[in-house]
Amino acid sequence: MYYTLIVDFLVMNYNKKFMRKAIALSIENIKNGGGPFGAVIVKDGKIVSTGVNCVTVNSDPTAHAEIIAIRKASKKLGSFDLTGCDIYTSCEPCPMCLGAVYWAHLDKMYYGNTKSDAKNIGFDDSFIYDELELKPENRQVRTTQLLPEEAIVAFETWSKTEDKVRY
Amino acid sequence: MYYTLIVDFLVMNYNKKFMRKAIALSIENIKNGGGPFGAVIVKDGKIVSTGVNCVTVNSDPTAHAEIIAIRKASKKLGSFDLTGCDIYTSCEPCPMCLGAVYWAHLDKMYYGNTKSDAKNIGFDDSFIYDELELKPENRQVRTTQLLPEEAIVAFETWSKTEDKVRY
User: Fold this and answer.
1) ipTM of this model?
2) B-chain residues near A39 (CB < 8 A)
């Protein structure tokens, strides 16, 4: 009983430490001209990488804190598969970043602010979540399927390729 | 009447030309050891950038064809806002890439294969779409909110900052 309580307390403190780092990065980044977002990737109790939002600073719409932290961690660990790593992000990820969390196979995710908090200060996270749930033809981005009979050749070729690296 | 038909024919041929380029890139990329995906970004009838899937080649889980094409176009045009550009992608984007399409403010999107086609050859696109529709606590990535009362300070600071660049 006491043992379980002590372990819970230690784990919670451990998690809070990394979340506080992500939050500190998010606040610091505003002073540097970036958006109010920070992220930290942790493996075996150590920080592997950090990221802050650099959309405006780098002129890159994909440069969200989580994407940057994932790219840096992958480079550092030499793998596109971050199994065994956790991410601490100062805000619930947008669909782009949550997609990246899945592709990277991160184990656990901790977040501070919510997508509604982000919406309240003018960010599109919540809007994009709503759009993704719609059928392509009902989304605000006008979407058209073209030449599926030609596009499928790539997938047929991939299926027949024997020495491919899966991911 | 005839005029409309001719314009439709020309626009369709124009769109098919760029889609065929994206498809050619997707097939070529298999030979180079990458995944079967290609994308092209077009502005005013000219190709601004291209991208192919480099996840395994670059050890980067975010290196999907669309993300690479968007990053290259943003760098070339010197802006995180790609309003006025269209994207032609050999496969319906995954949530990560569709999120990026929104953040980049691309005008129109054309795709060849569907997310179901991608699922049929072993890719997780369809699974990730399903996960995003679930509440965070029901997703396969274990998700926990931490320290929201501390995280919100970044958003409050952002709101009070006067000379920020919005995106």
Assistant:
1) 0.94
2) none
